[in-house]
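Comment thread on ticket #2218

A.B. wrote:
> Attaching the input chain for the structure job we discussed in standup.
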Amino acid sequence: MSTILEIKNLGKKFGKEPILRDINLALKKQEVLSLLGSSGSGKTTLLKIIAGLDTQNEGHIFLNGKNIDNEKPQKRNIVYLYQEALLFPHLNAFENIAFGLRLKKETISAIREKVNKMLENLDMSKHAKKMPNQLSGGQRQRISFGRAMVIKPELLLLDEPFGALDAITRTKMQELFKQMAELMQLSALFVTHDLKEAIVMGSQIGKIQKGKLVQYKSKRHFFEDEFSGVKQEMDFWAQIHSNDR
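C.D. wrote:
> Ran it. Output below, let me know if you need it in another format.
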């Protein structure tokens, strides 16, 4: 499968402080790369640079083989999803999803068909006329996902999108995203600080720490890396299990 996103030797400084150092990354089409990292590791800065919301000091970004270093955010066909749903408060669920399609000046019938199909896929059809303040946190996040996916972006960037949700809702949203990613053949970077979530969500895994990125060849390589955190997690639960006997 061909590569959709390639980053070469990317560096970023805030003043004299290096935030990202010599970042190299490759993402294939229709794959999800989980990017694991703690707070302050540089993962959000990297997403913002890819989206065009910030600029690097060094290196280059390629989307489908095209250098996009100087492309404006709205020209990149990349969607950035935050932890907060950030829905338009004056628009109902249907119109929030339809927003991007209306900007693209699609026909009324095409918009109706695409939005209704998206609402159905998200199991949100019965909430189409509700305003954001009438929806739960999980429902708002579903509508935010729908708004992002309905325009079929080249690349989806997700910055800890389920971090503000309770555990049960978070699990449901993880399952929904995996279903939608497969259904819509999405290519995505999924940022998280949660080890289990990184393993569950990504077909590939990378880890960013103090501005340096390691992209693992496979999940097996990630599991076997003594610095990945997997062994420590397994040892912790083994100890808990042993203490419960």
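A.B. wrote:
> Thanks. Noting for the ticket: The first strand starts at residue 3 and ends at 14.
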